[in-house]
Amino acid sequence: MTVTASGKVPTATGEPNELGYKSFTIGQFRFSRDEYFAYLTWPTGRHVMSADAFLRALQRDVAWDFFYGIVNFDGVLGTMNHYGTVDLFAGRYNDAYRKAELDHIENIDTEIIRETFKSILSDWTNEGFDPFASPEETGSAFGPKRGNNDAAITRHRVTAQRMVSLPGDEPLRNDENGHPINRMFADVTQDEPEVRAEPGFEQEIGSFNLFAYLSRSPVTWNPSVVSVCQESLYCPTTEEYILPIIHGNDRAEWFVQLSDEIIWDVEDRDTGRKRAKVVMKAGDVAAMPSDIRHQGYSPKRSMLLVWENASLEIPKLISSGKFPTQPVEF
Amino acid sequence: MEYVTRLASLEQYEKGGVEVIDDDPKNYAFSNIFEVASHAKPFEHIAVAKNFQYVLEAVRVEGTSPWRSAGHDQSALVMDGEVTFEFRTLRAGTGLSEAGSATVPDDAAETLMGMVTARRGHLTLLPAGRAYRFTSAGPAVLLVQTVTGPDTQFRWAEICQTS
User: What is the CATH number of the domain that holds A277?
Assistant: First the structure.
């Protein structure tokens, strides 16, 4: 394994190739693409991914600001969030690469990798391709460079301060503000609760139709904060097709299936060894322990409530062994 | 094509599960909110998820609950049925539990702040430092986002898949 731990790694952007795509360098990693594929090289290896799979994964990593723990683009490439710096790695969580000592990590200041990832996403996303959309609802990622889709890849991420719909907080979704009901949620009831606040208490009396709100989400696999209880965050999301990344946990997170069904493949976080399949139907609740990685499959667009504890202390408590990897013991 | 969104209720739910390859199913604390609520007494606060001090509680609502309060915001998602929430100011000096919600005396609930009538899928704020109670004519189910409190019940071995 080779490791660079400088934080302030150099970055560079190359001139467009014959297809119009720029190449990008972060430390000793180099990213390039052609009509179909994204290519990654590092001192001890190389990797190739389908361009659309790469862009769907990159979109989540950028939008989530590297999320909690590990965002595996696939079984080789990914990032690990240290909340201030980010590890960009190849093969670090792949048994074969580790044993062959071909894996590589660069530890990078978050600001540096964030800006470079945003540049790659902007340059490589063609007009008509929306990496956040389900495959049925977007155009092709492939071919020579044609335009861009910056409007889609820089969407506002919902992060309610208290709860969606309260005065001054995140607004509801409707046709007028560009959120039509998704084709797979046409049967979701759109009624709103009856809210009667006495004068002077409008800031504290609030309620909204979460299911209707989710039925109008234009994106997939994008947890967004809708209600807050101290550091406990409700991050519901709508899911269709395959989660474009394999999420490696640095803390337990919980899933509450609100509608339809998702099948989760669960693997050991560090080696990729298969551990379980978790089949979730409406009303089911399951924990994802902090030593696993998971990828979901949703045959029909579904509503999933992802529940997170945002405390920055948790990774240290778990990695130091002061707290077990599973959230409850019985 | 017409798609059907599959929701669930106390009357009709279908549980998934953990299919083990090389693991202990208890690591996933897998349960179903409707199954938990179907075996619960009204207004028991049964944890179905826990992350350090934070919990999600399944609450069966049938009739009118005691008045409750918490020192922090909470939320309540109606998973089934129709629930009316009544909110009142809390009498000054009323003791709050250190964390989570707890019952407060009837006379601690003072000035009416507002009412919410919510049905399946509706998410309601339970604001910090205020008194609230739930009412439902028939069985209804809430999922409450809160902190472990004196009334939180942990019944993992009873509610979760163990094999």
Answer: 2.60.120.10
